[in-house]
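Subgroup meeting minutes
Present: P.N., E.W., G.H.
Scribe: E.W.

1. P.N. recapped why we're keeping a running log of single-chain structure predictions: easier to compare across weeks, and new members can see raw inputs and outputs side by side.
2. G.H. added today's entry (397 aa).
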Amino acid sequence: MTPAARMQAAIDLLDLIIASARDDGAAADTLITRYFRERRYAGSKDRRAVRDLVYRAVRAYGDPPASGRGAMAGLAREDAALAALFDGSAHAPAPLGEAESGPDGSRLPGWIADRFSALIDEAEQAALLDRAPLHIRRNPLIASNAETLARWPDARPIEGATYGYALPTGTDVPDDGTAEVQDAGSQFIAQACRAAPGLTVLDLCAGAGGKTLALAADMVNDGGLAGRLIAADAVRDRLARLTPRADRAGYGGQIETLLLDSGREEAGLRPLAGQCDIVLIDAPCSGSGTWRRNPEARWRLTPARLERVVALQARLLRLALPLVKPGGRLVYAVCSLIDREGRDQIQQIVRTDPLWQPVHSTGSEQAPGRSWGEGTLLTPAHDGTDGFFFAVLEKPC
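Output recorded in log:
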């Protein structure tokens, strides 16, 4: 493909991505994969170049542009090298028109900017749309620190993450149970649970089990899982992915799975009432803290969707409170930097249930994040992680 043909391919893909975001269709990565599956003539360099152009545009516009051509033409107004690709040759976009202008400079959707935590300044907004680093969590049941560093000599231990390492982007991480790709922020949240051998631990929104396996690492004793670790979720397909991952990690048959009936979760959780030393709620959310991994996701978020997840988060918190035994702890987390999903949810619990005592983890050099309300905010620029809010509440004995 010529450079100009790559530009036209990027325009075509952006049209698909914009329409899919509007109609809640397939994700950008899926659309890109399908596009090139049907165009075998495109080599690896072509695919990489087109993908880079697409995501450059996606990151530049807080609100969805009107069209793929409009998105790339706007960037071309600020970049002469891109403008030269609009040459009208075969398989190339037509020359630029006078009225085609660039992005307005805002990288956040216009309706949402004032809903972000006050700590999210311009530097944080920029970092939120940068390329994400590659973090892994070592599985201590299989690999030692020395073995991990021998396998990945360029690995850099992540300060504060017991089993965490940063790898150069593009490093191959085989799916063999030795290590899991997991952002450092997720690792910090699992550590805040303080899971330990002999405890009963519930991961209430386990999904495919990334944080469940991180909790398992802290519950290992004599080469196996000691205690009771339960992974619960209301989505069967998602929860089913945990079993083979647990098998590869060496926890086969040791982690319980609990499939909940959506809308009737209370009945499924009733046997656990007052039984859990730790309950982790990694709640469904807007995903606004992970936009550097999925930048087109901000084009999908709407005020109505935000309202729905906020209501669901509040319901999950109310479901979880009775499950914690006296002296136990509830850890609530969202991969969001919107206060309604994080700080405000916990403040509501503390106001209406004064029995629960917040435990603040920040304030020392070793603790990541910044104190925010009754919890902690992790952000890309400040902490090098995805954006998270998490809070720890303890139930007195």
